[in-house]
Amino acid sequence: MHLDQHYVDPRVAAIYDTANAARQDFDFYLALARELNARHIIDLACGTGALAVELAAQGATVTGVDPAPAMLDVARRRPGADQVRWLDGDSSALPAATADLVVMTGHAAQVFLTDEQWRTVLADCARALRPGGVLAFETRNPSARGWRAWNRTDSHRAHDGPEAFETWVEITDVRPDFVSFTGHTVFTADGRVVLSPSTLRFRTSAQVRTSLADAGFAVRQVFGDWTREAVTDTAPELIFVAERT
C-alpha cells in the first residue's frame, strides 16, 4: 500500500498531533468502547497512537497497528505507550479472533482505493474479531462534497510552538468516487516545504453497506457526525458500527 509523504517523513510525523489537534472522533470511539465493554481493542492505522493510549487508559488491552514506521516512532515515545502493544504492519498483521472491537480512525478507510484492497481489509478485520465483535470506522460522506473546502484559502492553518509550521491542502483532481489533492507543510524555521500528494476513495453508504455484508458484518448503526446525528445529504461523515456475524 502506498504511504503518503506526511506519514513517512519523520519531521512531519512529529507534528502530526499538533496539526490534527481537534479530534472529535476520539470522544466517539472512547465512548463506544465503554458502551461495548470492549476488553481487547485493535486500533488499525493507529498513526501516532494518541487514541490507542487513551483506550488503554480506560482499562482495555490495546494493540496499535500502523504501516508507517515514522508514525509508530512517535507513538512509542508518547506517555502511556508502554500500555499498548505496537505492531508495524497493515491489516494482515492483525492477530486472529482476539478482539472485541476494531477501530479504524482518521478516515483511514478512504485510503483503500480499489475494491480488492477494501475487501482484504474487511476480511482481515473480520478474522481479527471474535464472533459478535464490532468494527467501527468512518468515511467522509460523498454527498456533502466536503472537498470543496480543500483549497489554500479555506484550509490554511498556522501552528505555533517549538516547531512552528503552516499547512494547507489543494485539490488536483475530482473524479467519480475519487478525490486527489496535495497536502502542503511549510516549516517556519528553515522554510522547508513537504508536499504530500494523495488520493482518497469516496464510497457511498450503500457501497459500504454492501461491502460489509459481503465480508460477514451486520451494520448496527450509521451516524452522520460525531454527535451521533442521523445521516443526511449534508452530513459530513458516514460513521459505521458493524458486528461480525
Can you walk through the features of this model?
It is a single chain. This protein is an alpha/beta fold and 245 residues long. It has two domains: 5-142 and 203-244, Vaccinia Virus protein VP39 (Rossmann fold, 3-Layer(aba) Sandwich); 144-200, SH3 type barrels. It has nine helices and eleven strands. It has helices at 5-8, 10-14, 16-19, 24-36, 50-57, 69-77, 115-128, 152-155, 205-214, and strands at 40-44, 61-66, 84-88, 99-104, 129-140, 157-159, 165-175, 178-187, 193-201, 217-223, 237-244. The protein has a seven-stranded mixed β-sheet, with helices on both faces. A four-stranded antiparallel β-sheet has the order 6-7-8-9. Strand 7 and strand 8 (178-187) form a beta hairpin. The longest helix is centred in the middle third of the chain and has 14 residues, at 115-128.
Low-pLDDT runs of 5+ residues are none
For the largest beta-sheet, the strand count, sense and barrel status come to: 7 strands, mixed
How many domain regions? Answer: 2
The first-level CATH class of the largest domain is given as Alpha Beta
Q: In the CATH hierarchy, what is the superfamily of the largest domain?
A: Vaccinia Virus protein VP39
Query: Helical amount among residues, as a percent range?
Result: 25-40%
Q: What is the number of helices?
A: 9
What is the CA-atom radius of gyration, in angstroms? 17 Å
The pLDDT mean sits at 96
- Describe the strand arrangement of the main beta sheet, using strand numbers: 3-2-1-4-5-11-10
* Overall morphology: globular
Number of DSSP strand runs: 11
CATH architecture of the largest domain: 3-Layer(aba) Sandwich
Beta percentage is 25-35%
Briefly note the structural class of the backbone. alpha/beta
Span between termini: 28 Å
What's the SSE pattern? HHHHEHEHEEHEHEEEEHEE
The CATH topology of the largest domain is given as: Rossmann fold
Pfam families: Methyltransf_25
GO molecular function, one term: methyltransferase activity
Organism: Nakamurella panacisegetis
InterPro entries: Methyltransf_25, SAM-dependent_MTases_sf
